[in-house]
Amino acid sequence: MFNFLQTELMQNRNFMRLWMAQIGSAFGSRITRTVLPMIAIISAGASTTQIGIFSVLGVTPGLFIAAFAGGVIDRGNKRIILIVSDLVRAAAIMAIPISAWFGLLGINQLYIVITVVGIASAIFAITDNTYFPTLVIKKHLVHSNSRLEATDSIAEATGPGIAGILIQVITAPFVMVIDACTYLWSAFMLSRIDSPEKPSEPDPKSAGLFADAIAGYRICVGNPTIKSLLIVDTLMNFVGGFSMALYMVLGLSILNLSPAVLGMVISVGGVGAFVGAIYTSKLSDHFGVRRAMMITLVAGLLAVLLIPASMINLEYGVWFSMAPGF
Predict the structure, then answer these.
(1) Count of alpha carbons within 13 Å of 16, Cβ hemisphere only?
(2) For residue 25, which of 121, 111, 114 has the smallest C-alpha distance?
(3) Cβ(24)–Cβ(186) under 8 Å?
(4) Using an 8 Å Cβ cutoff, are 262 and 167 in contact?
(5) Most buried in the list 19, 53, 98, 232, measured by CB within 10 Å?
(6) Residue 317 CB: number of other CB atoms within 10 A?
(7) C-alpha span between 120 and 113 (Å, rounded)
(8) Contact (Cβ atoms closer than 8 angstroms) between residue 156 and residue 273
(9) Which residues touch 100 (CB under 8 Å, ≥6 apart)?
(10) Which of 259, 253, 275, 269 is nearest to 306 (CA)?
């Protein structure tokens, strides 16, 4: 039965085109996320404070737009929104190698690029999740979603490593040319989808930017489970933002890792995420969903604490090596 469904799914040309587009977008997103901070540090000489601002601009505008854009996306032409999002990202990314070629690349331009890419990526992610179910029949939803998620996991595990190696071969700004091409490939494959799309009927009570945002907020706050998850996720992203902002600074400026090595380190994290996804159902079945989430949160916290612990050990090691008699 599974092989039959896989074969039948492979014969769905529109889904296959969406899948091919998602491959380009997934790898492009990982390259962008890895290379842009490296460019800010290596090429633009960004300070720790500037990297912090850089990280905030990469996430916050997209979250703000996403809060208001859900209803518009749901009622709009999703394929066109996806294509425009890809083209906007490609154009923003291409501005980096062009500026680098003329010696004009600076931190202010990178601020603009990361903001535009963050907004477009947030819109793309929301639209993609609501668009693909319209291309497959109900019995194919699980298998098609598994294929998309597997592709995303592979991109997470290999994209940063590939990006790091490319940086050392052709320099960081010009890796962005390849990055822009992945978004153009995604837009091209999406343009070939010919499935008719029926937009959702507008609700007179919630058809509007602020009305949609308020309706979504009420749903989240009104459901105790969703409310708890929203609070936890908000705290995790807020605190995790500190770690992500300093990650590149730690690797490149303090530990003096090469871009290739740092890219491989980030890829290892992607492999860990892939393995974690495999064992999610087993953990949930054994401990229950709530306990499994608590265990993984604590495990993640302990893993993050290894970084400052290792830095303290490194500093003491350097101090002892400089002391008399050592």
Answers:
(1) 8
(2) 121
(3) yes
(4) no
(5) 19
(6) 11
(7) 11
(8) yes
(9) 43, 173, 174
(10) 269
Contact indicator for 78, 140 with CB cutoff of 8 Å: no
**In CATH, which superfamily holds the domain spanning 2-287?**
MFS general substrate transporter like domains (1.20.1250.20)
230 within 8 A of 220, measured Cβ to Cβ: yes
Phi-psi region of 136 (alpha: psi -120 to 50; beta: other; left: phi over 0): beta
* pTM score above 0.85: no
Helices and strands of the chain, counted as H and E runs: 11, 0
Coil/strand/helix, residue 46: coil
Instruction: Name the phi and psi angles at 47, rounded to 5.
Output: -85, 175
- ∠ CA 248-253-256, nearest 5°, is 100
Q: How far is CA 174 from CA 94, 180, 288, in A?
A: 9, 10, 47
Distance from C-alpha of 278 to C-alpha of 212, rounded to nearest angstrom: 35
Mean pLDDT, each 10-residue run in order, the chain (326 residues): 52 84 87 85 81 79 72 81 94 91 86 90 85 75 72 81 84 84 94 77 58 73 79 72 71 80 80 72 76 80 72 50 44
Q: With the CA atoms of 157, 162, 163 and 166 taken in that order, what torsion angle do they form, in degrees rounded to the nearest 10?
A: 170
Phi/psi at 103 (5° precision):
70, 30
Dist. CA 197–CA 195, nearest whole Å: 6
The two structure tokens encoding residue 210: 């602020």
